[in-house]
Amino acid sequence: MAGHGAARPMVAQAGTPLRGTAPIPGDKSVSHRALILGALAVGETKITGLLEGEDVLDTGKAMRAFGAGVERIGEGAWTVRGVGVGGFQEPDNVIDHGNAGTGVRLVMGAMATTDITVTFTGDASLRSRPMGRITDPLALFGAEARGRRGGLLPITLTGATNPLPVQYTTPVPSAQVKSAVLLAGLNAPGETVVIEREATRDHTERMLRGFGAEIATEATAEGHVITLRGQPELRPQTIAVPRDPSSAAFPVVAALLVEGSDVLVPGIGLNPTRAGLFDTLVEMGADIAFENRREEGGEPVADLRVRFGPLRGVEVPPERAPSMIDEYPVLAALAATAEGSTIMRGIKELRVKESDRIDAMARGLEACGVSLEEGKDHLIVHGRGPGSVPGGATVGTRLDHRIAMAFLCLGLAANRPITIDDGAPIATSFPSFLPLMRALGADIREVGARETAL
Ligand SMILES: O=C(O)C1=C[C@@H](OP(=O)(O)O)[C@@H](O)[C@H](O)C1
Ligand SMILES: C=C(OP(=O)(O)O)C(=O)O
């Protein structure tokens, strides 16, 4: 679990162009959901391509503690023997979700309508993130939460004895909130309805449908109305997890940062609720070919061929934010080498991620000599073209994997090396980041590590 071990400082510096093929691991969002829904089905679910990052492994441990059989049978290949909807047993210890907002929030939802009491916690980052957005709707089902002041973890949640179905309009665009309510609705009688004004990633809906739940989504003037019929028997599935577009973002952006690069990133999930970064990059003038478009595991995918070329700053439409919410840090890094300003508005949700990502990016970019403007809900990066980023700074990554990877990518195009104080959290979402980037030719190393040790 990130934050529990020693800090791992890392440094990135300019070198040769990036070339080759980047095999991206499985999607983190889909991986969490595959383990949770597998645990709620009756029988054995088979998963291939599961992301074996710390966040997902913590969800696997949680599902085991709730009574499911979770076994690793090969690289990325797992089986989950489910206990059925309502069948979770009470764990005999605290459930520690490490660094994972998705993990803790979805699992709280999944247990909130079963009559058990569970204490949840996480690392220093997760213990500072808002949980009221989950415990408030779960209270409508009849669940009771007691946490620290401000609704922070650790939280003890007692599931509803006689759950009520709920109709809930999400107050913030959040797939985690939507998913927690839907997962709680699984063990409530009748129909649970979630209304979201802005569409967020829809992996929970797609996967629930795959497991045989009755779920419908309707686009209305109010927004997306999602209706789930409770107390289904979920049928075990065979799930091929697509490769994670949020992880792919790093080698894609690195290829756009480093002159002369030409990188192939195969089989990337391009679900429209996740693909906002790629639309933005194309608007910036990026040379990206989407080759061999196809469907895999119920999700649209393509092979991305990315070549370095000149980029211009753009204004990102605020309504695109939910489809690229985790990609703003790496976009902000890239924006420093575009010509002109990149304007990112409608992004205040970034302030409650693993770190306050607007502040973390602003302080880090400033330290690297990049000019910017920031506000409560926006960040504007003034790019001055390739070769314009001085670098030469040490950036604080604040237990945030995406901040860590974004600055390592920027270091590949800066005039002086960029150091990050701690790369350990990268293992939460992208454990193969360092070897993958190095195989493309990136000069990224652990500070103090000998060349052969990596
Ligand atoms: O549901 C999910 O899998 C996720 C939803 C998003 O969080 P919010 O729901 O807080 O927007 C995203 O930032 C996170 O990385 C994964
Ligand atoms: C926000 C993220 O994850 P989580 O909320 O699951 O911690 C992320 O991976 O960028």
TrEMBL record:
It is an enzyme of class 2 (transferase). Belongs to the EPSP synthase family. The active site is at residue 326. It comes from Amaricoccus macauensis. Its EC number is 2.5.1.19. Pathway: Metabolic intermediate biosynthesis; chorismate biosynthesis; chorismate from D-erythrose 4-phosphate and phosphoenolpyruvate: step 6/7. InterPro entries: Enolpyruvate_Tfrase_dom (IPR001986), Enolpyruvate_Tfrase_sf (IPR036968), EPSP_synthase (IPR006264), EPSP_synthase_CS (IPR023193), RNA3'P_cycl/enolpyr_Trfase_a/b (IPR013792). Phosphoenolpyruvate binds at residues 28, 101, 129, 176, 357, 402. This is 3-phosphoshikimate 1-carboxyvinyltransferase. Keywords: Amino-acid biosynthesis, Aromatic amino acid biosynthesis, Cytoplasm, Transferase. It comes from the Bacteria.
